[in-house]
Amino acid sequence: MVNVPKTKKTYCSNKACRKHTLHKVTQYKKGKDSLSAQGKRRYDRKQSGYGGQTKPVFHKKAKTTKKIVLKLQCQSCKHYSQHPIKVSFQPFSFIYFSSFFLVLLN
């Protein structure tokens, strides 16, 4: 996770507040996939039996980092809002860029 403060004073868009209040900051995480979702049921039905893989499996991944999404919870009304921040650098890419700039400076 990116180093962010645990609390942040920001605008709350809920009808109860609509003013700047203190928010608790956590990182958004993807929920567990539902087995009863229509697409999952269709995919499992198609995969069953003989015939191997029926749908294309994506392999050409281009991005190396993801945008971090912060989940803000208002302390007064408990309303949640999300705030995406720019792509965070992983340690490897930071080392790569710092060595690249050192080469440019020399």
What does this entry show, briefly?
It contains 2 helices and 4 strands. By secondary structure, the chain is an alpha+beta fold. The longest helix has 15 residues, at 91-105.
Structure description:
With 106 residues, this protein is α+β, with helices and mostly antiparallel strands. Helix content is 24%, strand content 29%. It is built from 2 helices and 4 strands; from the N terminus they run E-E-H-E-E-H. It has helices spanning 38-47, 91-105, and strands at 7-12, 19-27, 67-74, 80-87. It has a 4-stranded antiparallel sheet with strand order 1-2-3-4, with no helix packed on it. A hairpin with a 5-residue loop joins strand 3 (67-74) and strand 4. The protein is flat and about 60 Å long. It starts with 6 loop residues before the first strand and ends with a helix.
